[in-house]
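Student: Send me a single protein entry containing the residue sequence and its fold in token form, directly below this note:

Tutor:
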Amino acid sequence: MSVSLAQASLLDIFEVLRSKRFVDMTHTFSEGIPHWPGFPEQKAELIYHYDEGVGTMGSGFCAHYYGHVGQWGTHVDPPCHFVKGGRTLDELDVKEMICPLAVLDVHEKAAANPDYAGAPEDLYDWEKRHGRLPEGAFVVLRTDWFKRWPDPAAIANADAEGIPHFPGWGMELLKILCEERKVRAIGHETTDTDPGCTGSLPGEYYVLDQDIYQVELLANTDQLPEWGALVVASWPKPLKGSGFPARVFAILP
């Protein structure tokens, strides 16, 4: 017997959700992956092994020690990453971790111009097809740059002078998304919010200064619909955390 949405229990909704296709938007991280060059490499050490008994235990177990910066692999940047006094990871509400997902597909423009910056017309073209973007969305810029993973040189795409060339968000588009559409978060496949050739990060500072979080180095955006999916972005809860690897996935309609 069918029930209305108002009558549906959480278990009814779960049955619907688990029948859908899920897309993992997260890269597997390890040593040597693309990252900001000012950060040290990850360190992973096996400290206990199955073949080693521990204390009075008859058998061992597996445990690793991991050391890495917060901005490692697919990761979340809370406002405090750039903004003194901004919210930290433990201060972001769990309700902000599940959102309607909007994908602005600019991968053909990025293929033609690696310095491409997402522009207002990319949003307006999207809205012609799907209607005005509602408040509280998680907006992803699809560039297909994730397909260069895990090659750091391919991700950076630097020229002979060492200037990186990868696509990103344009400031005008970011202002519309944050101030007029009031998005919950943004995400992208590259190591920075701004195009690599910018040489600075005005867009990233702006977004975080709006009390909005972002997720960088997303994967598998080519499997996402432009609209109709949900995104779940989760991360650990370090006290006053300024960033951490995230696990992000989409539930497709």
